[in-house]
Write a structure and sequence with these properties.
The structure is a homohexamer of 75-residue chains. With 75 residues, chain A is mainly alpha-helical. Chain A has one domain. In chain A, 71% of the residues lie in helices and 0% in strands. Chain A contains three helices and no strands. In chain A, helix 1 crosses helix 3 and helix 2 crosses helix 3. The radius of gyration of chain A is 14 Å and the shape is globular. Chain A starts with 12 loop residues before the first helix and ends in a 6-residue tail after the last helix. Chains A, B, C, D, E, F: This is Hexameric tyrosine-coordinated heme protein (HTHP).
Chain lengths: 75, 75, 75, 75, 75, 75
């Protein structure tokens, strides 16, 4: 599964942001299914400035799509 | 072949996400047709934090296009 | 919390820009919750040219979404 | 020449994808006109994981523009 | 202050481009407020090929937002 | 000057692509005004795979804006 609930629609921007983070993580999981390897790499992400910034950029791109899908939760 | 079924339209966001991953992979394949080399590089992707994050970013960009093509599967 | 006030709507472009910076920072915080580690990494960001430029790029992407959400504050 | 046929319009998504790859390559060619140097660099691209992923990201961005130009080939 | 004049609207594309460069620079300034450090890092940007290219990419993203805000100055 | 002719509108996609390359180059020029330094860095760009790919990515982003400004030259 790549998208929880199978939908880009969320009730709030906050939930949209959480979905962006989840979607970004699930691509990593699909590319590297081995939990032990992912766990080791997470230690790298979380302690390396450039890797953390790269996480941030990917979440920003995923969120742009989710926000557009939700009409930016304007109403 | 760069796009399976020759269409950006999918029934669900989940399938759109799978298509994004496939499209990203097929560009790599077209640029490096040698399966043995790709297999060796896949070991690099799957075990390197920055490479995995880069995969994630490309999938996010491909998915943005697919999601727009599908009107974000709103209905 | 990933989005302060739970909304992408801001009164001005200036506030939108601040929100973009905050949203970018909160992804980092969610990925690395340990304040001591983040503090150490902030020293890296703030003194490394490529890291600072990467921060700038992520803020630009977050801001694009916020600006679209606000109809670019045209009126 | 930077865009073959001088148009972003293609009959199919598949042709749009091919155009994206061609447009990405022609920028490289315009920046480095020396065929011998490009040939040497192609060996680098095709055998380096990060370079291949970077190719993939650029193709994704070019394709986003082409897909929008073609109304995502919806009809 | 992150956006001079507090607006994304400019009279011309040229001014929009200048605004994009200023906005990109002000994010750096907000992230690293120490002028002496920034001055040292500017020497890095201006003499390193990858850093200069990264500056160019961020300005391109900022400009995309500003151009959309101004309806691409079409009239 | 950051945008030749002060406009994003071009007669053809081909000219739009040329404009994208010029706009990308003029940001570099504005950031590093010293012609001798730029000339040295150009040697780096043109002979380094990752730098060339980075040039390609920036041109793709600039072109996306120019193409949208021109309604993708559809008619």
């Amino acid at each position: 599964m790549m998208i929880p609930n199978g939908s880009l629609i969320t009730a709030t921007p906050e939930e949209g942001r959480q979905l962006a983070m989840t979607m970004a993580r699930l691509v990593i999981k699909a590319t590297q299914p081995d939990e032990a390897v992912r766990s080791r790499l997470r230690d790298v992400y979380a302690n390396d400035a450039m890797a953390l910034l790269q996480v941030g950029q990917t979440v920003a791109i995923e969120f742009a799509t989710i926000a557009a899908a939700n009409g930016y939760w304007r109403t």
